[in-house]
Amino acid sequence: MASSTPLPLAITMGDACGIGPEIVARLFRTGEAARAFVVGDVAVMRRAAGVVGGLLPVAPIDALEQLVDVPPDCVPVLQVEGLPADLIAAPVGQVDARAGRAAALAIERAVALVQDGRAGGIVTAPVHKEALAAAGVPYPGHTEMLQALAARGGVAPPVRMMLANDELRTVLVTIHMSLRQAIEAVTFDSVLETIRIAHAAALRQGLARPRIAVAGLNPHAGEGGLFGEEETTIIAPAVAAARAEGIDASGPHAPDTVFMRARNAAGHPGEFDLVVAMTHDHGLIPVKYLGVEHGVNVTLGLPFVRTSPDHGTAFDIAGRGTADPSSLRAALRMARTLAAGVSAWSAP
User: What is the SS3 assignment for 49-84?
Assistant: First the structure.
C-alpha cells in the first residue's frame, strides 16, 4: 500500500452468538465501513449479512493486499485460522465456548495486524465474558486481553478504559473486578497513574490543557473522613501529586454530582473535560444513561488505536436484525480520527 493511503481499520466480529456480527454487517450495508475489513469467520458474517437483509455479499480475503480487489458494497472478511470448525452451529443468543474462543482468536489476529503495521487501528464488536471464560480465555474482557497482547519484553503497558459520548468522558481507575476488590485496588499509585494516562491521552487528542475532575470513592467524597478515609489518604494526595507535575487535576469531587458538572450540553458548558472515576459503575452509569447508542469505549495507554461500542452482546435480541449499530458507528468514526492523528476531542 502507498504510504499516503490510510491503513485500513480492523473490525473484530465479536461473539458469534451476539449482535456483533449483524451490527458490523449493517455498517457495511450502509457504506459506512469503507477502508475497513472484518477479522472473523466468513460463515458467521454471511449469516449476519442475511439477518440484516438486502444484498450484501461477503468476500473472503486471505491477505490485506486483496482489499483493493473487493467490490464496493461487499464485506471483506479475513478468515481467522484455528476457529472451531462447528462455530456456525453455536446457538445465537446463548453463551457458548466456541464463540468465546473464536472472539479471542479474532482479537489476537487483529492485534498482530496492527502491531505489524498492516492495520491502522482496531474496532472491536462486543464479546461475552462468560463465553470467554467457558473457552478458557484467561482475561475477563477486551481491556485486559489487549493489554497483555501489547506487552513488550514481558512488560504490559498501563492502560485505562475511557467511555466517551458527545457530552461526557470518563476514565476508570478500576474496571472488571468485584466491588470489594475494586476498593482495595484504589491506591495512590493507581489513581495518579490514571490521571497521568488520561492527561496524556487528552493532549494527544487535541486539548492543550485538559481539565480533569477526580471523583471520590465514598458518598460526598468522604465528608472529611466521616464516610471513609480514601479521599484524604489516597485520592487527594494523588491529585496533589498530579498538580505538582503540571496537570490540571482537581478533587476529589463528590461522585454523585461531578458528572453533572462535567457534562457538556447545549446551554451547559462542562466545567471539566473528563472525569476520573474510581470504579466501573461509578463512571459508566452516567455515561450510558446519556445514551448507549452514542457511547464509545476507548482503551487509553495502548501503543495502537482501539475503540468499541459501549454495549454488550445483547443476546436477547441477537439474530433478529433489529440491533442498533449507532455505538459501533461512533466507535468506527472515533478510530478513524485517532488513527489519522486528528483531534478527537469533538463529538465522536
Answer: HHHHCCCCCEEEECCHHHHHHCCCCCEEEEECCCCC
| 330 within some domain | no
- The answer to whether residue 116 sits within a structural domain is yes
Cα 46 to the chain's mean position, in Å? 25
- 329 inside domain: no
Please give the grid coordinates belonging to residue 161: 478504559
Per the CB < 8 A criterion, the answer to whether 303 and 338 are in contact is no
Number of alpha carbons in the 13 Å side-chain half-sphere of residue 172? 24
Residue 90 has pLDDT above 80, yes or no: yes
Closest CA to 217 of 189, 236, 244: 236
Strand 160-164 with 169-172, pairing: antiparallel
Q: What are the counts of helices (DSSP H) followed by strands (DSSP E) for the chain?
A: 12, 12
Arithmetic mean of pLDDT, 11-22: 98
Q: What is the CATH number of the domain that holds 62?
A: 3.40.718.10
DSSP letter, residue 147? H
CA-based angle 201:206:210, to the nearest 5?
Answer: 65
Residue type, 332: L
Confidence of residue 343 (pLDDT cuts 50, 70, 90): low
Contact (Cβ atoms closer than 8 angstroms) between residue 120 and residue 7: yes
**What is the count of structural domains for the chain?**
1
d(CA 217, CA 226): 13
Please report where in the chains the cell 438486502 appears, as a residue: 54
The whole domain housing 47 covers: 1-157
Residue 204 covered by a domain: no
Using a pLDDT cut of 90, give the percent of the chain over it. Answer: 78
Radius of gyration of the chain (CA): 20
